[in-house]
Amino acid sequence: MSKVIKSTFISEAVEGFTPRTAMEEASRCLLCHDAPCSKGCPAGTDPGKFIRSIRFRNVKGAAETIRENNILGGSCARVCPYDRLCEEACSRCGIDRPIEIGKLQRFAIEQEEALNMTVLKAPEVKKEAKVACVGSGPASLACAAKLAMEGYEVTIYEAEEKAGGVLTYGIAPARLPQHVVDHDIETVKNLGVKFVFNTRVGKDITLEKLQEDYAAIFVGAGLWLEKLPEIPGVELPGVMAAADFLKKARKSEGTYNPGRRVIVIGGGNVAMDSAVSAKLLGAEKVDIYYRRTIEEAPADMAEFQYVLSLGISITTNFAPAEVLGTDKVEAMKFKGRDGESEAKVAVDTVIFAIGQGAEDMGSIAPFALNEKGLIVVDYSCKTSVDGIFAGGDVTLGGKTVVEAVASGKIAAVGMMNYLAQKEVN
Amino acid sequence: MGIKKDLSIDFLGVRCENPFFLSSSPVGSNYEMVAKAFESGWGGVYYKTIGIFVADECSPRFDHVKKEGMPWLGFKNMEQISDKPTEVNFDNMYKLKKAYPEKIMVASIMGSNEQEWRQLAKMCDEVGVDLIEGNFSCPQMTSHAMGSDVGTNPDLVRAYSKAVAETTKIPFIAKMTPNITDMCIPAIAAMEGGAKGISAINTVKSITNIDLENMTAMPVVNGKSSISGYSGAAVKPIALRFIAQMLQHEKLRNVPMSGIGGIETWRDSLEFLLLGCRNLQVTTSVMQYGYRIVEDMSNGLMHWMDERGYDKLDDFVGKALDNIIPAEDLNRDFKILPDFDNEKCVGCGRCYVSCFDAGHQAIDWNADKRRPELNEKCVGCHLCLNVCPVADCIMPGEVKWKDGRQQTDIILKKNYE
Question: Which of A33, A297, A377, B105 could serve as A267's disulfide partner, Cβ 3.0–4.6 Å?
Answer without folding.
Answer: A297
